[in-house]
Amino acid sequence: MNSDRRQGSGAGGFQQRPQNQGGPQGGPIVPGPSSIDWVLGLKVKIMTTLDDIIVGRVYAYCTLTNTLTVLEDETPLGAKPDVKNYRILKVSFIKDIAVLEKMPEDTTEDEAAPANSRGGGPFLKATPHIGPVNINSAVQKINSAARAAGQILAQRGVGVTKDAQDLFDALAKTLPVRWLDKSILVLEEVKINPPYTPEACSAKSDSPALARVKKVVDGERRRLETLKQARSETSEERKGG
């Protein structure tokens, strides 16, 4: 299959239309990022700067953000057949783009003109059409995803050792815990300070949870140490053949 190929020029975007297309009125296209408008609606094969290959139909090109939106050919794994996957790429992230099909022969000069030179541009025939978007629903999903990401981030200690994080993760399975600087706060009462031993646990003198947490910490440390030794022995056996 014949294809027209263009290489990205970094932040400057794509500057040239295939010779057999030309610009409006048959003249050369005006240099600039908007010159990629001519591929809207066409099937392309894109290679990113990370050498990833993306095949799909160009759905949109934004001159403000210098991004290209591609409707991928493949349905996401596990998704319903009618679910579409869109990829938004910075043009500076594109190393190479090959057009896998020619512009329809019945395309008029007006339809081939850049979108910023007339009303709608190639978007007039862009498919599939975008339906109404429920903004409130979208905002709720974004906020929910942000909260989930924040909760995951809050579970990761900053500047702590792997052993400390492993102990935190083990305690989190059965007790409410959170990081307090480099200390682990359990039940909002008991603080486990470095080096995270039973002796490093502290709380108010009348806290009934202190003895329980010390016992759990001791048990988890023993279990984690056993796992570490088992992994080390397995690694040594593999090295020895």
From TrEMBL:
Coiled-coil ranges per UniProt: 210-237
Signal peptide (from-to): none
Annotated spans, Disordered: 1-30
AD domain: residues covered: 131-225
InterPro entries (UniProt xref): AD, Lsm12-like, LSM12_ABD
Protein name per the record: AD domain-containing protein
Pfam families listed in its UniProt record: AD (PF09793)
Entry keyword set: Coiled coil
